[in-house]
Amino acid sequence: MKGNIILFVLLTLTTMECIAKEYQFVSIENLIEQEVGRKVLPHFYQKLGHTITIKPLPGKRASSMLSTGEKDGEIMRIFSYGIEYPHAIRVPTPYYSLQTMAFYKKDSGVVINRKEDLEHYKIVKVRGVKHTDNITKGMPFVYDMDSTQAMMDFLELGRAQIALTNTIDGLLTIKARGYTDIVNLNEPLDELYLYHYIHQDHPQLVVEINNVIKQMNASGELANIIKQAEKAVFTQD
Solute-binding protein family 3/N-terminal domain location, by residue (predicted)? Predict the structure, then answer.
C-alpha cells in the first residue's frame, strides 16, 4: 500500500512537471504602465500552473526579441502592434489601458485642440513606444529619448515644446523630478487598450490566457490585482 502511494505521488509530480512550464517575456523599460503589467501578468500564468520571467528592454529591442523567437512574447502593447508584427499573436482580451497625453511648460503658448495640432511643435517621446510613434507618424519635428525622465528633463530645459507619454507615466515623472512648471492637457489625445502578446509558436497558450483574463475580469479579481499593482508602482521611491 505504501509503495502504491509513493508511486502515485511520483507519477503526479512527473505529470505536473510536464504540464507546468516557464515562459520568458519582455517589457519596455522605464514606463510606469509596463511596471504595472510586470506585477499583473504573473497572476494569469499562476492560474495555469506556469511561471514566467520578464526582462525590461528598450522598446525596439523588445520587439526584436519577440520577432526572432528569443522570448515568448511581450507583456503589454497596443492593438496595432499585432498588425505590425505578424510573429506576435494578440491575446484578444485587453487587461489594462493607457492614455496618450501631451505635456508642456506653463506660459509656453502651446495650444492643442486635436491630434493634428502636434505637427506645429517640437516633440519628444520615448523611443520604441507604439502609441506615441503612431500619433506622431509623418510629423516633422519629433525626437526620440531613452526614458521618460530624459524626455521631461529635455522639456524642462526648453529644448522641446511637447513631451508625449502615458498620463500616469508623465505625472509621476514630473513629481519625482520636482518640476512645477510642466502641465498637461485637460483631456488625453487618445486612450488605448493594452494587450498581452505571445509568439506564434504558442497558439494554444493564447487561448488559455485569454480564458483566464476573461474569468478574472468577470469575477472582479483582475480589478483588485490591478489596483494593488498600481498602488505598489505609484508609491515606490
Answer: 45-228
